[in-house]
Write a structure and sequence with these properties.
With 205 residues, the chain is an alpha+beta fold. It is 35% helix and 20% strand. It contains 5 helices and 5 strands, in the order ααββαβββαα. The protein has a 3-stranded antiparallel sheet, with helices on both faces. A two-stranded antiparallel sheet has the order 1-2. The radius of gyration is 19 Å and the shape is globular. The chain starts with 17 loop residues before the first helix and ends with a helix.
């Protein structure tokens, strides 16, 4: 995207709202691999490790500060709590840190309210990440679930798929007794944080 370029329909790629919309993820496209790479940098505390299908790469570069990454990961750890947009992906066996996304798709050169791209990207377990997963659902049904949630929202449709995938993956992973114990402690710690958030929310009412 460039301020002087135009779309095929003749409209400019850059408008007065572009600067603000970029901060929300609009007016820019990324591939799933690019998205996973970004989360990989976050998980590795700002260190970029070149992806490899054969063996672990020893080529790395520090792109962001450790402090910034820790703050972002702390925020993402609340997404799958009852107050987060990914509450449906909550799991009481291991912790999940994630980000949901709901994008209006472009139709005839304009964003439409009728078609969406539902996304959910996260890593788990939060305290000792082993896996990063990205789920995209093209044009989920724009209906409400039995609980009143909008199915087209990333945290609902893609979040539900993420939960099933993460559970299956963790079930086939070999865990030591120490790792299972650590996961239990991490879940208890997150539960305590959520209860503290409950009290904070009550104080605002």
């Amino acid at each position: 995207m460039h301020p002087t370029k135009k779309y095929r329909n003749g409209k400019s790629e850059w408008s007065n709202q572009t600067t603000s919309s970029l901060s929300m993820g609009y007016n820019i496209s990324t591939s799933t691999v690019q998205l996973l790479k970004a989360f990989s940098i976050l998980v590795n505390n700002g260190r970029y490790i070149r992806p490899s299908l054969i063996s672990q790469s020893d080529q790395s570069e520090q792109l962001f500060s450790v402090e910034s990454c820790l703050r972002i990961k702390e925020a993402l750890s609340y997404v799958c709590t009852q107050y987060g947009t990914g509450a449906v992906a909550f799991n009481n066996q291991f912790t999940i840190s994630a980000k949901s996304g709901t994008t209006h798709l472009i139709e005839n050169g304009q964003y439409t309210d009728k078609k969406h791209l539902s996304s959910f990207v996260g890593f788990f377990p939060s305290n000792d990440p082993k896996y990063i997963c990205a789920i995209h659902i093209q044009e989920p049904l724009a209906v409400k679930t039995s609980t009143g949630k909008h199915l087209q929202h990333g945290g609902v449709s893609a979040g539900s798929a993420f939960k099933l995938f993460s559970q299956d993956l963790m079930n086939v992973t070999q865990w030591s007794k120490e790792e299972i114990k650590n996961q239990s402690k991490a879940c208890q710690k997150m539960s305590k944080k959520t209860k503290e958030l409950d009290q904070l929310m009550i104080s605002f009412k």
